[in-house]
Amino acid sequence: MSATEDEQQRLLQPGNNSSDNPEIVIASGCGASLPCDPRRKLHKYLVLIIMCLLSFGSYFVYDNPAALQDVMERDLNLNNEKYMLFYALYSYPNVILCFFGGFLIDRVFGTRLGAIIFSSFVTIGHFLFAAGALVNKPGLMDFGRFVFGIGGESLCVTQNTYAVSWFKGKELNMVFGLQLSLSRVGSTVNMNTMKPLYDHLASFMGIGHHTLGITLFIAGVFCVFSLLCAFAMAFFDKRAERILKKKEALTGETIRISDVKNFPLEVWLLSVICVAYYVTIFPFVDVGLLFYEMKFDQSAKLASLCNSLVYILSAAMSPFTGFAIDKTGRNVFWVIAGVVLTIISHGLLAFTFFNPFIPVVLMGFAYSIVASALWPMASYIVPEYQLGTVYGLMQAIQNLGLATIAQAAGAIVDTKGYLLLEMFFLALLCIALIFSLLLYFVNAYKKGNLNLSTAKRKQLAKLEEKAAQ
Q: What's the pTM value of the predicted model, to 2 decimals?
C-alpha cells in the first residue's frame, strides 16, 4: 500500500493536488476504491478512527480493578488499601513520567515511534498484571500497573500530538471531542463486561485467582488491538509525510528541557484550569455512588446509573460539542461556559433536593464542552515541535491533582460528609473560572488567537499562507 514515486508525482502535480481539488480519488497504485491522497477527507477520517482507537485498550483496562473490585478483594485476599495501590501506582509515577514522555516524543522518539513504545508498555504492563492475578502474586500485579502507567498517559500525549498534526485547523475541536468520546466508551464497556465475563468463566472453572487471571488476560486483547493501531498510525503518518513532503516544512528546531521555563503564560493558565476542573469530575464520580443513595434515597441500581451518566453523556455529546466549537471558534468562551454550567450542576447537587439526574445531565454536557475546547488551545500557543512536551506537562499536572484530590475527597467524606465535599468542589471550580477569565484577558492583551472566531482564524491563515509564498 506504500506510495510509489509515480504516485507521489501524480499527487503533487497541480492538476492532481488535493489542495486544488480535495475530492480527487487517486486510483492508481492503491486500488480503485481507496482514497490515497492524505489530504482527502475520506482518507483523513479513516486515519481518525485508527487514531481514536490508539488509547481504547488503555482506557478499557485502566478500570479493570474497579469493575472487579469485589472479586479481586475476595480472590486475592486484598484489603482496600492494597486494592487502591493499583491506582496509586498508575497516577503518582505519571506526575513525572508523563512530562518526560512528552519531552521524549518531541526530542527523541517522534510521535510514531513514541506511540508504538508507549502502547507496548501498556500491553506488557497489563499482561504482567494479569499474570500476577493468575499466580496470586499481588506484588507482580503492582509492578504490572506501574509498567502500565509508564505507557498509559504518555500514549494519550502521542494521540493528542497526532490529532494536531493531522487536523490542526477547522476540525481539531471535533477530533478532540471524538477522542474523548471513544475513551469514555472504553471505560463504559469495561464496567459493563468484565464482571459478566468473570461470572461466565467462573460458571465452569469455579471462582478463584485462576479465573480472575484468565479474565484479565482476555481483557488484554484490547491492548493488543490498540498496539496494532499504533503500527497502523505509524504507517499512514509516515506515508503522508513522504507524499506531502512534510519534512521540507520543518524548521529544524528541537525542544530543550530549559524551554519549559519560557513557555507562554497561557500554557500555565491552561494547566491550572485543567487540573482545577477535572478534579471536580473524576473524584466526584469515584465517590458519587453512596452520595446518590444517601442524599436522594436512590436504589443501588439507580444510583449506579446516575453516577455513570456523566461519562455516558460526555461520550455521546463530545463529538457534537467539538463540531459546534469548530464552527464558531471562541474556545475560551466555551471553556468559561462549561465551567459555569458545572458550577450550577454542583450547586444544585449540594444545596437542593431536585431530581439528581438534572444536574448530572448538565454536568455531562458541560464536561464535554470543556474537554473539547480546552485541549486544542495548546496547539494555538506553542509550535508543533514543543507540543508533545506541553501536553505531557498538562497531563502530569492533571495526574498530580487527580491523585491528591482523590485522596482528599475520600478523607473529607469520611470526616465531614458530602456537603463539605461539594463546597470543596465548588471552590475548585471557582478557581477554574477565575483562571479561565485570566486566560481570556492575558490572551486578549497579547492579541493572541485563543478566542478568535473560526472565520477570523481562516482569514489569518490565508494571510499567513500568502506571506509564506
A: 0.74
Query: What digits encode the pLDDT tens for the residues 139-166?
Result: 899 999 989 988 887 888 888 888 888 8
Task: Output 79 or 242, whichever has higher pLDDT.
Answer: 242
Q: Residue 125: give its domain's CATH number.
A: 1.20.1250.20
DSSP 8-state secondary structure symbol assigned to residue 298: -
Last residue of a domain, one of 184, 216, 245: 245
Range of the domain at 123: 38-245
pLDDT in tens, 323-334: 899 888 899 999
* Burial annotation 240-266 (CB, 10 A radius, 16+ → b, else e): beebbeeeeeeeeeebeeebeeebeeb
Round to the nearest angstrom and report the end-to-end CA distance of the chain.
33
Residues 409 and 290 in one domain: yes
Q: Which amino acid is at 448?
A: G
For Cα atoms 316, 150, 289, give the angle at the middle one, nearest 5 degrees: 45
DSSP per-residue codes, 313-355:
HHHHHHHHHHHHHHHHB-HHHHHHHHHHHHHHHHHHHHH--S-
Q: Tell me whether residue 252 is in a domain.
A: no
Identify whether residues 341 and 452 lie together within a single domain. yes
Domain final residue, candidates 245, 268, 297: 245
Q: Tell me the C-alpha distance between 177 and 179, whole Å.
A: 5
Task: Output the CA torsion sign for 412, 414, 415, 418.
Answer: positive
- 241 and 266: one domain? no
Burial of residue 350 (number of CB atoms within 10 Å: 0-12, 13-18, 19+): middle
Say if residue 353 is in the same domain as residue 447.
yes
What is the grid cell recorded at 464? Answer: 499567513
